[in-house]
Amino acid sequence: MSLLLRHRFIVTGQVQGVGFRPFVYRIAAANAVTGTVNNSSQGVIIEVQGTAEQVETFGFDLTDKLPPLARVVSLHAEPTDPVADESGFTILKSTGGAGHSVLISADVATCPDCMADIATPGNRRHRYPFTNCTNCGPRYTITRSIPYDRPMTSMACFPQCPQCQAEYDDPMDRRFHAQPNACPACGPQVWLTDPAGTTLARGDEAIRMLAEALAQGRLAAVKGLGGFHLVCDAASDKAVAELRRRKHRPDKPLAVMLADLEAVRQLAVVVPAEEPWLTGIRRPIVLAAKREPLAVSPLIAPDTNFLGVMLPYTPLHHILLDTFAQAGGSEIPALVMTSGNLSSEPIALGNREALARLGELADLFLLHDRDILIRTDDSVVRVNPASGGPVLLRRARGFAPEPVFLAEPGPTVLGTGPELKCTLTLTKGDQAFPSQHIGNMANLETLAFYREILDHMQDILRVRPELIVRDLHPDYMTSALAEELGQTLDIPVIKLQHHVAHIHAVLAENKFTDPVIGLALDGTGLGEDGTIWGGECLMVDPESLEHQRLAHFSHIRLPGGEAAVRQPWRIAQAALWELGVTAPGAYPWPWLAQFEQESAFLPQMLTRGVNSPRTSSCGRLFDAVAALCGLTSAISYEGQAAILLEKAQDMTETGAYPCPLKSADPVSLNTLELVAAALDDLGQGVPVGTVARRFHLGLINGLTEMAFAFSTLLDIHHVALSGGVMQNLTLAAELPRALERAGLIPLVHRHLPPNDGCISLGQAVWGQRYLRLHE
Ligand SMILES: [Zn+2]
Ligand SMILES: [Zn+2]
User: What is the top EC class of this enzyme, as a single word (predicted)?
Assistant: First the structure.
C-alpha cells in the first residue's frame, strides 16, 4: 500500500454561499481522497488525504474547476499529519470567530435551472417566488452576519421541510447547503394588501390579482430583493403619469423591466456589449438606446434617447411578468420598476415601513415574510460605445459587497464619502470594500441607513478603522459623522479635497501608482482655496500623496447659491455677465418668459457678489449652455440639464468651439469662450443641435490640449478621468480617444461610478497610503 499524504488548504475569497463546499466534495470524490471541508472565519479549510498523485490532482482541480460564482483571492497549502483510518470525505459544520477573510457573495439573478423549476407545472416549486439554489438567489441582502450560514440569514425563521432538508444535505444536489433554500411548503410566502394593510389574497392568487390590477393601470408597491419597487404598466401613459405625480418625480427617467432579451429589443437597440450586462448574474438596469417610436409610454424617459431596461432577477419578477403578460397588459409586457421611496429618501425595507412610507404612493402592496436585512437599490450601467466597457452610474445590488483589489495592502481606513450619491468604503489588507449606493445624506432616513451599512460592513469584514478620511466640506453630514466616529473610536480624522479623492479612486481601481494628470469633471466640491471647484486639472502622485492644482475651468458665479443649481438659467445669465453681456441682443434669452422678474435682479446680485459664490464646476458649465440653448430653465433632478444637452447634439456636426488655455496662476481653461461662441451661433440662428455638438467637441479639444500641455511640462503621460460629467457618454467615449490621439494614456473607472459614488474609495485608499507613509 502506498504512503498516504495529508494536505491542508486554506481558501479565501468569494467561497461561501456559491456552491464551493459541494464542489470540493465532488472533486474529492472524483480523486478518491478522504478528508474534510469546513467554512471557518479564516476561509474555507480543506484537508485531503490520499496518495501523492491523488492529492496533487485534487489541488489542480481545486483551482481549475471552480463553480461559476466562486472567486478565489488566496489559496494556501501545507502538509499536515495523516489521520489513521479515515474513511470518506466529510463536510463539517461551519465555525465562526474573528479574523474573517471570506467574502459574502453579492445577490445573484435566478439561474436557468431554477427558472425551469418555476416554469414547470408539476414541479414542487412551480410558480414559487422564492426558488433558489447554490448558483443563484439572495445573498448579501439576507445576511445578518458571518459566517454565511442559514442561522445568520433572514431564512433562519423558516425551518426546512423534509424534502428541502434532504436537498440541503445531499452533496450531489444543486441545493446542497443553499442557505436560502425553500419551497412552498416551508419557505416564505407572498400576500397582497391594500394601503391599510388588509390582506386581499395570498400566494399565487396574490400575484394573479396584482397582475390584473397592474393591467388595469393601478400602482403597486412590490417587495423585492433589496427593497420595494413602485410598479405600474409601462405602456399606460395614465399609470406612468400618476406614478410620477405621486412620487413627485416629474421628469427623471424611470426603469422598465421586461421578460427577456427579445422584449428588450422591441424597445431598445441592444448592442452586443450590453447583452452580458442584461442577461448576466448581476442584472443591473442598463441604459440602452431607445427604439423610436417607443412601444411603451413616452413619459418613461422624456429627456433622453436612452431607456433604462432590466431583466427579471428574482423568481417573483419572472412570475409577475409572465402573469402580467397573460392578464393582457399590453403588446410588449413591460413594467415600470422604480425604487419604492419618496424622491431622495432611501428605498423602503420592511413591510410596516413600506405601508407607512408608501401608503400614499401605491394602491396595492405585494408583501412577503422573508426579511430584507440589507437594503440595496438596483444598479445602473451604461456601456461605453467606444471601449465596450461599463460606465457605472449606480453601484448597488449585484455588486455590493464585492471588493476592489488594490495595488498594495495596508491598514484599515474608513472613507466616509461625500453628501450626494454617497457611499462609504472600508479597506482591509489589499482590498477596498465600497458600500452600495447610499444616496443623499441630507435627509435623516439616509443617515440611519448609512449607520446601518457602516455597522454591518465592520461586522462582516471584522475590521475596525485606524483612520477616517472625510471631505473638506464642513457642512456635509458625512463630515460631522466622521468627526463623531473619530471621537468614539479615538482615531484620527483627516480631510481630503473632493476632486483629489476622485482621482485617487480611478488610480486605485487601475492599481496605478505613478503620478498622473487628473481631470476631475464634476458637479461641485469644496476647493482648497475656499471656492467651489468642479472642473479641475490636477497633478496627483499616489505614492508621495502630493497633489497640485494645475488648472481649472473659467469661474462662473452661482447667483442664489443652491437656487442656481435648480435653475440653470441663473448660471447661463451669470456666464453671460462674465462675458460682459448684460442684456439680450440678437438672441432672446429663453428664460425671460418664465423668470423675467428674477432675471432683472441678477446683475445687482452679481455686481455686489451677494450670495453668488464663484465656481469652476464643469457640471455648471453644462447647465449654463443647456439653459442658453433653451433646453431647460429649471431642473427637477440632478444632472437633467446636462442630459438634455447630450441628447440635443446633432452628431453629424464636426465643428468645435474654441476653448483655449489662459495663463494665470493657476492656469485656466477658458471655458467661457465656449459660452461666447454658443451665444454667437444662437444669435445667428444656428440650430441648437449644432450648438450642443460644437460645445461638446470644443470642450473635448480644450481638455485634450490642456492635458497635453501639462504632460509635456511635467513629463507625465497618464491622464486619469473622473467626476460626474464622465457619465456623459459623449465625453466617456470621445475624450479618452482624443487623449490617445494626442499620445496620452487615459485611465478611467472600471468598477465604480465616475460620479461621487467613488469618493469614499479615493478617500480610503489615500488614507491607507497616508498611514504607510507615516508608520
Ligand atoms: Zn438556481
Ligand atoms: Zn421545503
Answer: ligase
